[in-house]
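Async update (no meeting this week)

Hi team, since we skipped the sync, here's where things stand on the single-chain job. The sequence we agreed to prioritize is pasted below, unchanged from the tracker. I ran it this morning and attached the output directly underneath so nobody has to dig for it. Comments welcome in thread, and please keep replies under the output.
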Amino acid sequence: MKPINVGLLGLGTVGGGTVNVLKRNAVEISRRAGRQIVITRASAKDLGKNRICDTHGINLSTDPMDIINDPTIEIVVELIGGTDFVKELLLKAIENGKHVVTANKSLIALHGNEIFAKASKKGVIVAFEAAVAGGIPIIKAIREGLSGNQIQWLAGIINGTGNFILTEMRDKGRDFYDVLAEAQTLGYAEADPTFDVEGIDAGHKLTILASIAFGIPLQFDKVYTEGISRITRLDVEYAEQLGYRIKHLGIARNTADGIELRVHPTLIPERRLIANVNGVMNAVLVKGDAVGASLYYGAGAGAEPTASSVVADIIDVVRALTSDPENRVPHLAFQADAIADIPVLKSDCFKTSYYLRLNAEDKPGVLADVTRILADHHISIEAIIQKEPLRDETAIPIILLTQITLEKEMNAAITKIEALKTVTGKVNRIRMETLG
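Output:
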């Protein structure tokens, strides 16, 4: 059979890794796909730039439309990044009858519903394994490996930059902004780190995971996101003393009232495997009714780890070329006419436990006032710890761990606690999950 011609949009880190993996493992890949897979064309902004891959034999261009309009190209691999411009490129590729592979999580999270609808109409495949957790095949695991389960919840460390920062803060007692500067120097964080440290990147990925887990439309605008910039060394140390670790988690839970979609710093018991995922590594914990809890761990970024998922998607597309479109694995795991409009809950309706840290004057009755406010809002206390005052300060740090409660009640209670004359500054609140 004749080779499958692939056109590559973007020759950056992941694009170069994809070229290397396809060339190095060409024999093994053709054995698995049943056909030879060849990158015949690629586009890049700067054709004279030094690259990590050998582009010999690849027709290079600065215009991605040259590839999209080439009738010999059967699969377009998009590794440019961005949203609006790239969306138009891929819609045109789909209109031209080409299958698409992408690693673009923001594109899928924001425009996936439109793209998949167009692809289904044209009978082509859009594959996006590399969009979430780099080299971890988490989309395939949920969409296919766990397809016999009702997914109850999932929780993931799905941004390596945030995990690196929190790991360094814990292991070396460093401050957030000090570690962030190092992460930027090492290339883990961008010059503008907002997407990573404020949870937007993880929110894009959680949007995709929740859709394939629960059979709901992609709805990034309904994901609650909270970053890690307010996490201090004290919180990391206190969590450790209490037997917990702080991780920046993306959590999706299917409740009786609706779907929770939230990204935020989270205290989790140190004995959990996911609590011991360190550095820039990623991990996703999935709870199904039949399989129980299963953990997926690996590199969440990098040239060849991400290329591993890109190439696996290309192989899947080649394998499916001879199948009728209606017999292929659905883009979002569930048949298109079975996607359910289950409500996504607002943050006020979340139910979880909490870690609270506040600074209070060392006077009788302060703790009683705080516990009374919590009781008035139906919040039960799991533990109370009073620490020694910090150097050069008179206020006493008080840490409270609560049982599961409604976020709306916690918000109201925190407002009243902060209004007490004996409490100084803001109450630092971190959600807690047992992930049991």
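Quick observations from my side:
The longest strand covers residues 244-254.
The mean pLDDT is 96.
Reply here if anything looks off.
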